[in-house]
Amino acid sequence: MKNNTSFDTNKPLDLICLGRAGVDIYASQIGAKLEDVTLFNKYLGGSSANIAFGTARLGLKSSMLTRVGDEHMGRFIRQSLAAEGCDVSHVVTDRERLTALVLLGIKDQETFPLIFYRENCADMAVSKTDFDEAYIASAKTLLITGTHFSTGQTKSVSTLAADYARRNNTRTVLDIDYRPVLWGLTGKGDGESRFISSDTVTTHLQSVVPLFDLIVGTEEEFYIAGGSQDIITALKNLRAICPSTVFAVKRGPYGCTVFDSKIPENISQGFSVKGVQVEVLNVLGAGDAFMSGFLKGWINGEDYERCCTYANACGALVVSRHACSPSMPTLPELDYYLKTAHAVAYPDKDETLNRLHRKTRPHREFNELCIFAFDHRTQIADMQKQAEAEHISISDIKMLMGKAFLACAGQMDKSLSAGVLVDDVYGQKALNALTGKGFWIARPVELPLSRPIEFQGSGSIGSQLMSWPAEHIVKCLIYYHPDDDIAVRDAQEKKIAELYHSCRLSGHDLLLEIIPPADMIKDNTTIVRAVSRLYELGIYPEWWKLESSPPEVWNELGKIIRRYDPYCRGIVILGLDAPLESFEKEFVGLRSQSIVKGFAIGRTVFKEPLNRYLRDRNELTAAQALVKYLTAQYTVSDGKEVPLFAGTFAIFGHGNVAGLGEALSAVKDIFPTYRAHNEQAMACSAIAYAKTLNRQRMMMCTTSIGPGATNMVTAAALASANRLPVLLVPGDVFATRAPDPVLQQVESFQDGTISANDCFRPVSRYFDRIERPEYLLTALPRALNVLTDMALCGPVTLAFPQDVQTMMYGYPEHFFEKNVRYCHRPAPDKVELEKAAALLRTSKKPFIVAGGGVHYADAVKELEKFASACAVPVSETQAGKSALSWEHPLNMGSIGVTGSSSANNLAKEADLIIAVGTRLQDFTTGSRSVFGNRDVPLIQINIQSYDAIKHGAVALTGDAKTILHSLNEYFQSPLSDSAWQKKATDERSQWLKTVESSTAIVNPDLPGDAEVIGVVNKLLHEDDIVVGAAGSLPGELHKLLKVKRPNAYHMEYGYSCMGYEIAGGIGVKMARPDREVIVMLGDGSYLMMNSEIAASVMLGTKMIIILLDNMGFGCINRLQAACGGQGYNNLLKDCIAPGGPHPVVQFAEHARALGANAEKINSLHDLPEAMLRARASQKTYLIEIKTDPMPSTKEGGCWWEVAIPEVSASPKVNAAHQDYLKNKKELQAK
Predict the structure, then answer these.
(1) Which stretches in the chain have pLDDT values below 50?
(2) Residue ranges of the DUF2090 domain (predicted)?
(3) Looking at residue 860, what DSSP letter applies?
(4) Which spans in 1003-1059 are helix H?
């Protein structure tokens, strides 16, 4: 029967397939119920995709038009089609939907359960914008499957494509592809049903069939399209609608019947071509194979007998195999089958057919293979042993070799192909790293040196291969000689046959490496006869790996391979540890041998470098190793990849100068060492640096043993209380104890393992003593985990014995690999989140307490968004201050003992407290008195579960930024009622007035702290950072300082450490050198730790220091009075001074003596001009002003529990105790 269809032969594409593209998950266990299957295989699926795949395999230029998800399965579909030569330019990635999946089983010859997972899948979202008319016009044929007419969306798209085709002389094909489940006619789990009558579907299909030149389907599919379960009636109904369309009816074992004109009265009167009789394994996908074969003939203009013959043969081959698309035949395979089909009842068992199916499928071409072989196991182990380098991991060596290969491959000429031979005994990590990058990869299966050959690993070789990536080539080295002892030869041949069969089943290519045994005579015929014999045994590897031979041997090998296996991928030459020079001449001579595809060499290039590496590698002192490890740690800060450690502070002594001093000196350009004048101070500087950068970067501090070390204990406690990272590395006594007791050693009479450094244990998040150089291999990763984990974050102490610092050890190279550490943001538990959301939904008066965690989590924007959208007023702890701008209408100011009246008044009436990133210590909660009652619900958002459960809170554990983002998705409208919003507005307005009155200048010659802050408020620039820590100022700054941007307020109040301010200012300036740092402190703090003024001048970390001299400890003096006590030992005038009146310290003069610029002002009116001079200064500038120790802002604040003596001779103390009891009673009554 003649095919009268005409095609435009000038079009570049033969076929465009529009329709389903998914992934078939096929049950591997044939006969099992689908619910009992435990093993599956993954294949390309979807009718249209299968046809695009099948036609491309048969030589047509096909293109796929569909959508896939933006995920692994979508990429798999695109890769599978492209590998067959199918155009995927119009396989569109849908970022909103997932790729369709189908689960399929094979129970018996009649039962093929399948479940479609196609809810809102990507291929059904194909859009009119995914293609244009020119694309459709570029093909001779457009095929659409019926499923893509099943919805309004897909019907409109498919109809448009068909219209484009008909306008541009592109032939149209409909594959009816009727699946009742996809038309909503069955339960979602019933994908197996192939026919359910439906007038709706019939009407739907009949509205589009006139668009097509060819319609293909089974008899059941023509029933649904024609509206009758009598095939002739159905065909006649369709003929009435589309008089010139060709109908091709698939009839299973009866073959195919074609109708191109009038429909006869009996189907047998149509043009029929009998099908091929085979043993059926799997009918799923046979129709797509049939269509592929039919279109191969139809589009090429062959007559219908040939079209049907192709179609029947393709269908027969696929039904005899597992799966659809990978079972599609190639042209050589189809040609062979058409010649032998009458004699092949079981195509899946025919050796030649299966070999053609394996070898003639499209595969990546490798040109001039350059293979780096490092699959050696015993050889490298021997080299390791000879070098006495057992401490060096062979796995690490192979990772280094893999990296070297990647570096070389990246520089190779693009006309060459790179490959590797790697084992999985030592090289699994290297294999994993190289897989998926497009390289030629082979891995060995033989047990080294075994003869007869044995396979490594446990279990059968076939079971081992099932876990291998498909791209890996199975390499087997066999010491084989055709004249070997018969028993040995037979044993070897049986093993190779077993391996070859296993590769056929697993789908892996096989490379056989033949080396004649060294103790046997060999000549120029040995390898030729060996290869011939294996072919005669039915073993056809894809690759051979053979040793160098004379030209006549290569000529003979080429003839043999072409005779037995013209589809062999080729031969690669093995190196056998030969000198590199010996290869050059031979490689040139082999260019004429087309069967030789490249070379594989290993020890030739790595033997000498590896020997040197094993002898000389990374022999470092422990101190050098610690520093090298730290320099390899990176992070992302302010959007840039930067070193995690900005360097180290160090004060050297006998306990660290020889070891760490030497190591640090060698890396001063990349890991700078900063000298300080006081160990506590330098640790405070390092801590302030980390705090300023929201814990994203940090510093190390190292000291000698003894007082140098214990001076840092206070700083460690400060970092621990504030949850801030710092790496403390104090020197320690000799680990060997040989010279005990050494200078500055603290001896314990009860415990010989204790040194002064054990003081760090209770104030360190992680403590370790490095008593051996190799301890660093575990201690440093643990330390860095603590330092960079936002929940565990805090000080780490590594006590480093001075002798161990200098000891040498061979550290593995990978230990020093660059490691970029990213901020881990754990999401909240869904149950916790919903519980918190439920509380928020019922709240009418919610109130936020923002802590330092808001800054550390970089959650400022998320907090502002949540507060604004939900109309929730916000208060700030000392660490949380500046989370909202002072000018933000929802910023109620500070909370707690140093809190604003606005924040504290709202806290008393709130019906829900939302604490974000705060420990809720007693200054924040007013010893738990600031909230209206103990039963007010509390949500604690905190990354540390230890904090999240405090005060009986509803814990919402996780990253504050992530959690607030989730809450922002839950809530986009006000949670609070209008009355609460008005109260917040009124309270804020009143507090702003209070601030103005409290900071107004009353006594410019002896002002209070608030008056000074009032002037500072007017002088601050938006980018300035104000630093404080202890005494009177933190309370006033908390209440009164107007901070307008995040991280412009740096207050250390978790430990409230006097002396922190100047040292902290250095760290702040190092972190933010582009911003002005203004340190505000009292005379008490200054006198405690002022030496770092000299350090700031030396380091160039310019600060402005505003020193408020109230002549003593004014803050504690006021607390003493509040507790009923008389002034004693706080203000200098109240201290014992046997030598005469209390000293008058000239602070400005002292600062100048330390190298700073300084001045003393006598009136607050002089501060603006002094600040101008300070800003203009190129180095640290101190401004001294006398202040009144007595006044403080009375407004705001709340009760704070400070225990009062129960008995006293002082009436004032007794009265204070009664007030204390009264407040306690009121608190307990809440």
Answers:
(1) none
(2) 333-634
(3) H
(4) 1009-1019, 1033-1040
Q: Which two tokens stand for residue 1054?
A: 């978790």
Where does 788-932 show beta strands of DSSP type E?
A: 795-801, 808-810, 819-821, 846-850, 874-876, 891-894, 912-916
Beta pairing partners, 166: none
Tell the burial category of 1142 from Cβ atoms under 10 Å away from its Cβ (0-12, 13-18, 19+).
Answer: middle
Distances (CA, A) of 1128 to 351, 400, 822, 1201: 104, 70, 52, 21
Residue 1072 structure tokens: 């933010």
At 1001 the pLDDT is 96
> In this structure, are residues 62 and 14 in contact, taking their beta carbons and an 8 Å threshold?
yes
Q: What is the pLDDT of residues 900-922, one digit of tens each?
A: 999 999 999 999 999 999 999 99
* Whole-Å CA distances, 773 to 700, 737, 815: 19, 16, 13
Q: How far is CA 232 from CA 197, 247, 264, 265, in A?
A: 16, 12, 7, 7
DSSP 158: H
User: In this structure, are residues 403 and 350 in contact, taking their beta carbons and an 8 Å threshold?
Assistant: no
Q: In 3D, which of 668, 655, 669 has the Cα closest to residue 712? A: 655
Q: Amino acid identity, residue 1117?
A: N
User: What would the two tokens of residue 604 be?
Assistant: 């030739």
Q: Tell me which residue of 102, 164, 86, 99 sits closest to 125, measured CA to CA.
A: 99
87-94 β-sheet, strand order: 87-94, 62-69, 13-18, 139-145, 171-175, 214-218, 246-250, 256-259, 271-273
Q: How far apart are CA 289 and CA 312, in angstroms?
A: 9
DSSP assignments along 346-394, one per residue = -GGG-HHHHHHHHHSS------SEEEEEE--SHHHHHHHHHTT-TTS-H
Sheet strands side by side (includes 874-876): 891-894, 874-876, 846-850, 912-916, 938-942, 954-957
The length of the chain is 1230
- List the structure tokens of 649: 């502070």
Q: How many other β-carbons are positioned within 10 Å of the β-carbon of residue 883?
A: 30
Beta-strand pair 510-515/543-546:
parallel
Give the start-end residues of each E strand in 536-604: 543-546, 570-574, 596-601
Query: 912-916 and 846-850 as β-strands: parallel, antiparallel, unpaired?
Result: parallel
Copy the structure tokens of residue 335. Answer: 């040609």
Give me the torsion for CA of 406, 411, 416, 420, rounded to 10°: -20
Looking at the DSSP assignment, which residues form a beta bridge with residue 731? 800
Query: What's the pLDDT at 617?
Result: 59
Q: Nearest-5° angle of CA 66, CA 71, CA 75? A: 60
Whole-number Å distance between alpha carbons of 684 and 694: 15
Amino acid at 1005: D
- Nearest-CA neighbor of 142 among 123, 158, 126, 127? 158
Report the alpha-carbon distance of residue 327 to residue 321 in Å, rounded: 6
Burial of 732 (0-12, 13-18, 19+ CB in 10 A): buried
Task: Please compute Rg for the chain using Cα positions.
Answer: 41
The Cα-based distances of 955 to 836, 880, 912, 940 in angstroms read 8, 19, 14, 5
Determine contact, residues 751/908, Cβ cutoff 8 Å.
no
The DSSP 8-state label assigned to residue 924 in this structure reads H
Nearest of 116, 280, 291 to residue 192 by alpha carbon:
116
Q: Which residues contact 717 (CB under 8 A, 6 or more apart)?
A: 763, 1055
Q: Return the amino acid letter for 34.
A: L
Which tokens is 761 given?
């244990």
- So what's the pLDDT on residue 390? 80
- 926-963 pLDDT, tens per residue? 888 899 877 899 999 999 999 999 988 999 999 999 99
Q: Residue written as tokens 């057992």? A: 390
Q: How far apart, in whole angstroms, are the C-alpha atoms of residue 956 and residue 676? A: 41
Report the alpha-carbon angle 944-946-949, nearest 5: 105
